[in-house]
Bacterial bifunctional deaminase-reductase C-terminal domain-containing protein (Marmoricola endophyticus), 107 residues
Amino acid sequence: MGRLVSTFFSTLDGVVESPHTFHFPYFDEAMAAAMSAHQEQVTAYLMGRRLYDEWSTYWPGNTADELGAFINPLPKYVLSSSLTQPTWEHTTVLSGAPDEVAADGGA
């Protein structure tokens, strides 16, 4: 089993929604380098259905974008009780309660 690393944008007071409204003004070369270094270690993505819904409508059609070219061929795992037929290539749906999925080895 692999190691799970969570990376996301957050304000100091813990807000994680709508990162486009608070982090882009501060995204500089140092932050880009840090994100790039992290990205080099990514071998798969684990996400919830809402993030999957957003990303699966955007990234498959953006293969010219550096992140799109990177993320599209990677395995993607979606924890969801409502998604049954993923449309994004290399996506596996993990259904059931998170603790049950973890106990079952992700299957």
